[in-house]
């Protein structure tokens, strides 16, 4: 049945004796205010009937009903007659923002399994009769019920309850005494219960509890010792419990615990030694000091110490963690990564980002035979790497970005045969690279941006995999070795901002795979070798010079051979020597041509031959007097010339 009358206000189906389910379109009747229904109806879905303010008391006569969905309606209460719906299994009132109370007769719904009142933020209390649903209710969702100040103690009678969600109940100050009757409860969510100050000791009676979420309970000061009774608990989340000062030693009894998250527990200074008894713990994320017993966590796979600014050293027992793959020490105040003499054969990821006091890394790092990622970004005090780093035969990713004090890279780095990413961006104290870097045959990308290199050394190794070489803003770089011509797979060469670069080697013409060449702001570069015409694959080229004494005086005649070039950006100084060669008309694939500050009176006639040209941009070409015939393919012409009239 299609209900097209969206402005319908009254729907009477009381005589439809065989009707068991309403069509989904009923939910689109935004102005519906009155409804009479068939007695055999099993599913009543009125969600998003925004104008519906009440259910008729006759709803109690729909004895076959199994599900009622009132989501996003304006009902203020649920009628008492609902108590006769003995077959009702689901009652959904999500985002009923006007709902202020639930009738006590809800306790008579003997088959009710799911009660979802999420987002009913006007509701301040639950009827105590909810405890009568002891044998049926399995899921109770009260998330976002901001005004709810207390939960009735009768909730402890719900021995079939498996899932209790109280997340976002910001006015809830305490939980009632929880008896041992909640023996099937597996999930308890108290996320952002910002007024909750303590948990009852009886919470330890929840023998089946697997997930306990206390994230954002910022007034919670301690956990009861009875928490150690949670023999089934697997996940404990205490993120952002800013007032939590201590953990009971009984936490060591949580034999099934796999995930423990203590990030942003600002008042928690240390963990009890009993933490080392958590034999099943796989994931530990925390703040504060580490107990010496940390080395006993034989199942640990992830250790995160993000932002533990007060942590200045690691216990030696951490070397006993032989099976975990991830160690996150980001933002610590460590001055030295200590000797980790234990068996770290399983460690794959070591994150030391933003350890700004770190000056030294122990040579024992060379024992991490499975390490694949080493992140040292923003370790601004780190001066050098140990030569043993060359033993990391599995290392694929090495990030040294912004290691401002790094003066030298050990020659052993050339032994990292698996390395695929080497980031040295903004290592401003690094003035030279070891020649052994040429042995990194698997490296597809090399980031040397912002280094103080004066010369790119001879890289005689096999660079068959290198596709991107980034030398941006190497402001001291004067010379590039002719060995760059050996990079047969290079796709991108970025030299922007190399303000001291005086020339390019002719071997650059051997980069037959090059697609992108950026020479912006290479102020001392006076000429480009003719061999650039050999770069038949080149698609994008940028030449950008502004200083009068430093610009490229003439483009090479071979530029016309760049048959695949799609974009060409030419920036000139105000010099009469500067001109655009007629060979530019041979660039048959050129789609975008941008010319800036060119002291020219007219464009070369050959420009009409650019059969693929779509965009022509002329910026500050103030002497331009004449525009000859332009190619018919042109769709966009942009001009910015300080002239009283258009050419």
From TrEMBL:
<feature type="domain" description="Disease resistance R13L4/SHOC-2-like LRR">
    <location>
        <begin position="139"/>
        <end position="241"/>
    </location>
</feature>
<dbReference type="InterPro" id="IPR006553">
    <property type="entry name" value="Leu-rich_rpt_Cys-con_subtyp"/>
</dbReference>
<protein>
    <recommendedName>
        <fullName>Disease resistance R13L4/SHOC-2-like LRR domain-containing protein</fullName>
    </recommendedName>
</protein>
<feature type="domain" description="Disease resistance R13L4/SHOC-2-like LRR">
    <location>
        <begin position="461"/>
        <end position="572"/>
    </location>
</feature>
<dbReference type="Pfam" id="PF00560">
    <property type="entry name" value="LRR_1"/>
</dbReference>
<dbReference type="InterPro" id="IPR032675">
    <property type="entry name" value="LRR_dom_sf"/>
</dbReference>
<dbReference type="Pfam" id="PF23598">
    <property type="entry name" value="LRR_14"/>
</dbReference>
<keyword id="KW-0677">Repeat</keyword>
<dbReference type="InterPro" id="IPR055414">
    <property type="entry name" value="LRR_R13L4/SHOC2-like"/>
</dbReference>
<dbReference type="InterPro" id="IPR001611">
    <property type="entry name" value="Leu-rich_rpt"/>
</dbReference>
<feature type="domain" description="Disease resistance R13L4/SHOC-2-like LRR">
    <location>
        <begin position="342"/>
        <end position="428"/>
    </location>
</feature>
